[in-house]
Specification:
Elements: E1 7-12, H1 17-29, E2 32-37, H2 47-58, H3 63-72, H4 79-88, H5 93-100, H6 103-118, E3 126-129, E4 132-135, H7 140-148, E5 157-158
Parallel strand pairs: 1-2
Antiparallel strand pairs: 1-3, 3-4, 4-5
Length: 160
Protein backbone atom coordinates (compact mmCIF):
# COMPACT_ATOMS: atom_id res chain seq x y z
CA UNK A 1 0.00 0.00 0.00
CA UNK A 2 1.16 3.50 -0.74
CA UNK A 3 0.02 7.02 0.07
CA UNK A 4 -2.23 8.71 2.61
CA UNK A 5 -5.86 9.65 2.55
CA UNK A 6 -8.87 7.62 1.49
CA UNK A 7 -8.22 4.03 0.47
CA UNK A 8 -8.63 2.96 -3.15
CA UNK A 9 -8.20 -0.68 -4.16
CA UNK A 10 -6.85 -0.44 -7.70
CA UNK A 11 -7.17 -3.48 -9.99
CA UNK A 12 -5.04 -2.96 -13.05
CA UNK A 13 -2.52 -4.31 -15.49
CA UNK A 14 0.72 -2.76 -16.65
CA UNK A 15 -0.11 -3.09 -20.36
CA UNK A 16 -3.32 -1.09 -20.11
CA UNK A 17 -3.15 2.58 -21.23
CA UNK A 18 -6.29 3.44 -19.22
CA UNK A 19 -4.59 1.96 -16.15
CA UNK A 20 -1.60 4.26 -16.70
CA UNK A 21 -3.97 7.23 -16.75
CA UNK A 22 -5.69 6.02 -13.57
CA UNK A 23 -2.24 5.56 -11.97
CA UNK A 24 -1.34 9.19 -12.73
CA UNK A 25 -4.64 10.54 -11.45
CA UNK A 26 -4.51 8.52 -8.23
CA UNK A 27 -0.94 9.65 -7.57
CA UNK A 28 -1.89 13.30 -8.13
CA UNK A 29 -4.94 12.97 -5.85
CA UNK A 30 -2.86 11.82 -2.89
CA UNK A 31 -5.02 8.84 -2.01
CA UNK A 32 -3.91 5.62 -0.35
CA UNK A 33 -3.62 2.93 -3.03
CA UNK A 34 -3.73 -0.83 -2.57
CA UNK A 35 -2.61 -2.21 -5.94
CA UNK A 36 -4.02 -5.53 -7.11
CA UNK A 37 -3.36 -7.35 -10.36
CA UNK A 38 -6.06 -7.92 -12.93
CA UNK A 39 -3.63 -9.38 -15.44
CA UNK A 40 -5.56 -11.15 -18.17
CA UNK A 41 -3.36 -12.62 -20.86
CA UNK A 42 -6.29 -12.75 -23.30
CA UNK A 43 -6.52 -8.94 -23.20
CA UNK A 44 -2.84 -8.05 -23.02
CA UNK A 45 -0.30 -10.78 -23.86
CA UNK A 46 2.40 -9.36 -21.53
CA UNK A 47 0.04 -8.64 -18.61
CA UNK A 48 0.89 -11.70 -16.52
CA UNK A 49 4.63 -11.45 -17.17
CA UNK A 50 4.63 -7.78 -16.14
CA UNK A 51 2.57 -8.46 -13.01
CA UNK A 52 5.05 -11.14 -11.99
CA UNK A 53 7.97 -8.81 -12.74
CA UNK A 54 6.57 -6.12 -10.45
CA UNK A 55 5.77 -8.62 -7.69
CA UNK A 56 9.34 -9.92 -7.86
CA UNK A 57 10.63 -6.34 -7.63
CA UNK A 58 8.46 -5.97 -4.54
CA UNK A 59 10.47 -8.74 -2.90
CA UNK A 60 13.35 -6.25 -3.03
CA UNK A 61 11.22 -3.27 -1.90
CA UNK A 62 10.90 -1.86 -5.43
CA UNK A 63 7.28 -2.71 -6.28
CA UNK A 64 6.14 0.92 -6.60
CA UNK A 65 9.28 2.02 -8.41
CA UNK A 66 9.03 -0.65 -11.10
CA UNK A 67 5.27 -0.12 -11.41
CA UNK A 68 5.87 3.61 -12.01
CA UNK A 69 8.60 2.86 -14.56
CA UNK A 70 6.33 0.49 -16.50
CA UNK A 71 3.41 2.92 -16.55
CA UNK A 72 5.73 5.72 -17.67
CA UNK A 73 7.06 3.71 -20.62
CA UNK A 74 4.39 1.23 -21.75
CA UNK A 75 5.96 0.86 -25.18
CA UNK A 76 9.02 -0.88 -23.76
CA UNK A 77 7.99 -3.87 -21.68
CA UNK A 78 9.95 -6.73 -23.22
CA UNK A 79 12.60 -8.49 -21.17
CA UNK A 80 15.66 -6.40 -22.15
CA UNK A 81 13.81 -3.26 -21.06
CA UNK A 82 12.67 -4.93 -17.84
CA UNK A 83 16.28 -5.87 -17.06
CA UNK A 84 17.37 -2.28 -17.73
CA UNK A 85 14.66 -0.94 -15.39
CA UNK A 86 15.75 -3.39 -12.70
CA UNK A 87 19.39 -2.41 -13.04
CA UNK A 88 18.49 1.31 -12.81
CA UNK A 89 16.45 0.58 -9.69
CA UNK A 90 19.37 -1.23 -8.07
CA UNK A 91 17.75 -4.65 -7.99
CA UNK A 92 19.69 -7.87 -7.79
CA UNK A 93 18.69 -8.86 -11.33
CA UNK A 94 19.56 -12.56 -10.93
CA UNK A 95 17.41 -12.80 -7.80
CA UNK A 96 14.61 -10.83 -9.50
CA UNK A 97 14.76 -13.09 -12.56
CA UNK A 98 14.46 -16.23 -10.42
CA UNK A 99 11.66 -14.81 -8.28
CA UNK A 100 9.51 -13.57 -11.15
CA UNK A 101 9.41 -17.15 -12.42
CA UNK A 102 8.70 -18.61 -8.97
CA UNK A 103 5.52 -20.36 -7.86
CA UNK A 104 5.14 -17.93 -4.94
CA UNK A 105 5.02 -14.89 -7.24
CA UNK A 106 2.72 -16.67 -9.69
CA UNK A 107 0.39 -17.54 -6.81
CA UNK A 108 0.19 -13.89 -5.66
CA UNK A 109 -0.76 -12.69 -9.15
CA UNK A 110 -3.28 -15.52 -9.59
CA UNK A 111 -4.85 -14.73 -6.20
CA UNK A 112 -5.32 -11.07 -7.13
CA UNK A 113 -6.93 -11.96 -10.46
CA UNK A 114 -9.25 -14.48 -8.80
CA UNK A 115 -10.23 -11.94 -6.12
CA UNK A 116 -10.87 -9.28 -8.77
CA UNK A 117 -13.17 -11.52 -10.75
CA UNK A 118 -15.03 -12.63 -7.62
CA UNK A 119 -15.50 -8.98 -6.68
CA UNK A 120 -17.01 -8.13 -10.05
CA UNK A 121 -14.00 -6.56 -11.74
CA UNK A 122 -13.87 -7.69 -15.35
CA UNK A 123 -12.11 -4.75 -17.01
CA UNK A 124 -9.07 -2.64 -16.27
CA UNK A 125 -8.81 -0.41 -14.45
CA UNK A 126 -11.37 -1.17 -11.77
CA UNK A 127 -11.29 0.80 -8.53
CA UNK A 128 -13.09 0.09 -5.27
CA UNK A 129 -13.52 2.86 -2.70
CA UNK A 130 -16.13 3.95 -0.22
CA UNK A 131 -18.54 1.17 -1.11
CA UNK A 132 -18.44 1.87 -4.84
CA UNK A 133 -16.83 0.27 -7.84
CA UNK A 134 -15.55 2.41 -10.69
CA UNK A 135 -14.57 0.91 -14.04
CA UNK A 136 -12.17 3.17 -15.91
CA UNK A 137 -9.87 5.97 -14.85
CA UNK A 138 -11.25 8.20 -12.09
CA UNK A 139 -12.33 11.68 -13.09
CA UNK A 140 -12.03 14.81 -10.96
CA UNK A 141 -15.61 14.51 -9.65
CA UNK A 142 -15.02 10.94 -8.45
CA UNK A 143 -11.74 11.91 -6.78
CA UNK A 144 -13.32 14.96 -5.14
CA UNK A 145 -16.13 12.80 -3.82
CA UNK A 146 -13.63 10.32 -2.47
CA UNK A 147 -11.83 13.09 -0.60
CA UNK A 148 -15.15 14.39 0.81
CA UNK A 149 -16.25 10.98 2.11
CA UNK A 150 -17.87 7.77 0.90
CA UNK A 151 -21.36 9.23 0.52
CA UNK A 152 -20.03 12.00 -1.76
CA UNK A 153 -18.49 9.76 -4.44
CA UNK A 154 -19.95 10.59 -7.82
CA UNK A 155 -20.06 7.89 -10.52
CA UNK A 156 -19.22 4.25 -10.35
CA UNK A 157 -21.62 1.63 -9.14
CA UNK A 158 -22.53 0.52 -5.66
CA UNK A 159 -20.94 -2.71 -4.50
CA UNK A 160 -23.43 -5.49 -3.93
Amino acid sequence: MRGDGPLVVFYADFSCPRCALAWERLAAAGVRVAFRHLALKARHPRAVALARAVEAAGNQDRFWALAAALYADQGRTDDPHLWAHCERLGLDVERWEAERRSEAVAARVTRDVRDALRGGAVATPTLFAGGTMLVGPPDTAWLAGLAAGPSAIVGGTSET
